[in-house]
């Protein structure tokens, strides 16, 4: 009798039960509840400082859609994201190919060097590049003999932040591509060598198709993270000069934690969520449909 | 001929590597230079004189090492917790059959798509209601689970053979025993790569500590860097020194786990 109760208790505390219970309760509190609250809150005039929570229907959304700054931020976000994602992929793959080559020596040394920007805190990196871009004593203008006031010129501020982001992040793509390359089957390449395929042929006909899962992984994770990037903006330009570097997540940060318009900020975050969901779905669709014939 | 080719190839790699790390080198060198040298217009890469004052000043004026220690504590704690919970939950998703396994896993995965902007406002209010503002509870408790970590562990643990686990079960080993004595030791590669990723993410997290912590003595390093820049905006040497120090722990974590890092990514993302 006692043994069977003990057994039941042991069963109740089995690894599976504990893990699932923990996961479900944790997600309910820190995911499901906040998401629901944000969704509901986007229909309310919501300010926690003065305890305000009044239903306003679709007003927040109307306000956001009628706001020129919002559309400007969307445009900047899309520009920033598309350049950062493409360069991250291309540089990442290029360097991974170089590092994977038989000719490369001291691989772990080079790995470490290329990975260094990626393992550096973004806030720190943002400060480093503020000095790099400094018009008086910055390294960029000095080296290339330029006279550009990078971060204070509306034309150059967003490109400057994009350059910095690409530099910071290409290492992530490099290691993941490298891991992918190291996992490719060797016999396929040997067969291609026997057939006398050129290096370029092997790259387009074997390497690229086989790296597809890796590429999709990097593409999707990059897309999601760049669509909500804001730290480098907050540190380097605070959206300026003017509104030239406002991106949507910075706008949300500004609306929520500077102006305390939680309702409007929630409405914006819902729109951002929809944008991310749609773009991710499109990426999955596009990469799936492109049939690969070796 | 091949020798020349190899040398040339590696020289090119080396040049690319130098271009990559040049901002760090510049920062490190300048952190030992007096401010007058740093802001000298048309100055050279190599400063005319060296000093340790920048490092001394950030500690004396700003108690910088206090924030460094705070950050280290938070980053190590959350990284250890997340590695453990990710392995545990990943193990369940990989090796246990139960109703809703795939559905629950897809839900976990899809949360990676939810922008921080959606959940951060209600979470902020929640922390206010719990009375956790300005405590480290607010930094640790809401970040004990990582969808990314669960994903990596599920992928790698599902490659461990069922027969071995079954044999252990037949010998009377409990699931907890199997988890601690077989699964965790066999997941060294995944642990290493998650440790590198997660430590960096905790170490560089800006917004959450910025919102939660008010006392400067409790503040974490990334927020501290910004506060420093706000208070001593023209003290470039100090900022260079502070930034240089803030990079060190992540590099150490990387060097410790580097060997298993790529293998971990391979088993975590490949399939």
UniProtKB/TrEMBL annotation, chain A:
Keywords from the named record: Cell membrane, Membrane, Transmembrane, Transmembrane helix, Transport
Cellular component terms per the entry's GO annotation: plasma membrane
CDD domains reported for this sequence: TM_PBP2
Transmembrane parts of this sequence: 12-35, 78-100, 112-132, 156-179, 216-237, 257-284
Stretches assigned to the ABC transmembrane type-1 domain: 74-283
Superkingdom of source: Bacteria
Stored InterPro entries: ABC_transporter_permease, MetI-like, MetI-like_sf
Cellular localisation: Cell membrane
Matching Pfam families: BPD_transp_1
Membrane topology designation: Multi-pass membrane protein
Family: Belongs to the binding-protein-dependent transport system permease family.
The protein, known as: ABC transmembrane type-1 domain-containing protein
Organism, as annotated: Caldibacillus thermoamylovorans
Automatic annotation (TrEMBL), chain B:
Gene3D superfamilies in the record: MetI-like (1.10.3720.10)
Record keywords, A-Z: Cell membrane, Membrane, Transmembrane, Transmembrane helix, Transport
Membrane topology: Multi-pass membrane protein
Record carries keyword Repeat: no
Naturally occurring in which organism (per UniProt): Caldibacillus thermoamylovorans
PANTHER family tied to this protein: ABC TRANSPORTER PERMEASE PROTEIN MG189-RELATED (PTHR43744:SF12), ABC TRANSPORTER PERMEASE PROTEIN MG189-RELATED-RELATED (PTHR43744)
InterPro entries: MetI-like (IPR000515), MetI-like_sf (IPR035906)
Name of the protein this chain belongs to: ABC transmembrane type-1 domain-containing protein
GO cellular component annotations of the record: plasma membrane
Membrane-spanning residues: 7-29, 72-94, 103-121, 133-153, 236-257
Subcellular location: Cell membrane
UniProt xrefs under SUPFAM superfamilies: MetI-like (SSF161098)
Domain ABC transmembrane type-1 per the UniProt entry, residue ranges: 68-257
Residue ranges that the Swiss-Prot or TrEMBL entry lists as coiled coil: none
Protein family (similarity comment): Belongs to the binding-protein-dependent transport system permease family.
């Amino acid at each position: 009798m006692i043994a069977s109760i003990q057994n039941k208790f042991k069963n109740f505390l089995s690894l599976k039960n504990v893990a699932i219970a923990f996961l479900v309760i944790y997600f309910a509190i820190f995911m499901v509840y906040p998401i629901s609250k944000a969704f509901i809150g986007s229909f309310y005039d919501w300010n926690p400082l003065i305890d305000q929570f009044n239903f306003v229907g679709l007003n927040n959304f109307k306000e956001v859609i009628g706001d020129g700054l919002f559309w400007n931020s969307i445009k900047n976000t899309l520009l920033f994201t598309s350049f950062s994602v493409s360069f991250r992929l291309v540089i990442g793959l290029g360097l991974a190919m170089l590092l994977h080559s038989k000719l490369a020596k001291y691989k772990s040394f080079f790995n470490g060097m290329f990975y260094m920007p990626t393992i550096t805190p973004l806030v720190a990196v943002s400060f480093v590049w503020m000095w790099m871009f400094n018009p008086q004593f910055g390294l960029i203008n000095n080296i290339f003999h330029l006279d550009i006031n990078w971060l204070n010129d509306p034309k150059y501020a967003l490109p400057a932040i994009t350059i910095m982001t690409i530099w910071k992040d290409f290492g992530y793509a490099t290691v993941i591509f490298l891991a992918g390359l190291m996992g490719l089957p060797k016999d396929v390449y040997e067969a291609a060598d026997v057939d006398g395929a050129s290096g370029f042929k092997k790259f387009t006909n074997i390497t690229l198709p086989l790296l597809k899962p890796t590429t999709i992984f990097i593409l999707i994770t990059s897309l999601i993270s760049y669509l909500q990037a804001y730290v480098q903006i907050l540190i380097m330009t605070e959206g300026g000069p003017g509104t030239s570097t406002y991106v949507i997540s910075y706008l949300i940060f500004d609306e929520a934690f500077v102006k305390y318009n939680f309702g409007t900020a929630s409405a914006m975050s819902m729109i951002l969520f929809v944008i991310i969901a749609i773009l991710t779905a499109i990426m999955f669709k596009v990469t799936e449909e492109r049939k690969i014939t070796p | 001929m091949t020798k020349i080719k190899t040398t040339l190839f590696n020289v090119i790699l080396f040049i690319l590597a130098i271009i990559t790390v040049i901002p760090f080198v510049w920062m490190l060198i300048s952190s030992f230079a007096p401010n007058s040298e740093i802001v000298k217009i048309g100055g050279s890469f190599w400063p005319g004189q060296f000093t340790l004052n920048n490092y001394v000043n950030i500690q004396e004026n700003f108690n910088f090492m206090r924030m460094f220690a705070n950050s280290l504590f938070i980053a190590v704690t959350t990284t250890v917790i997340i590695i453990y919970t990710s392995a545990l939950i990943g193990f369940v998703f990989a090796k246990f059959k139960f109703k809703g396994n795939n559905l629950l896993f897809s839900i976990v995965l899809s949360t990676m798509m939810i922008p921080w902007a959606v959940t951060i406002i209600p979470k902020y209010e929640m922390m206010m209601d719990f009375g956790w503002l300005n405590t480290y509870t607010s930094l640790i408790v809401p970040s004990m689970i990582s969808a990314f970590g669960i994903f990596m562990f599920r992928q790698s643990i599902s490659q461990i053979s069922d027969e071995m686990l079954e044999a252990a079960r037949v010998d009377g080993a409990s699931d907890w025993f199997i988890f601690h004595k077989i699964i965790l030791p066999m997941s060294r590669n995944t642990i290493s790569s998650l440790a590198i990723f997660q430590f960096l993410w905790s170490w560089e997290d800006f917004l959450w500590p910025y919102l939660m912590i008010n006392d400067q003595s409790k503040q974490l390093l990334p927020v501290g860097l910004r506060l420093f820049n706000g208070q001593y905006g023209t003290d470039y040497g100090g900022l260079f020194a502070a930034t240089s120090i803030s990079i060190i722990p992540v590099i150490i974590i990387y060097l410790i786990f580097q060997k298993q890092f790529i293998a971990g990514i391979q088993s975590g993302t490949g399939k």
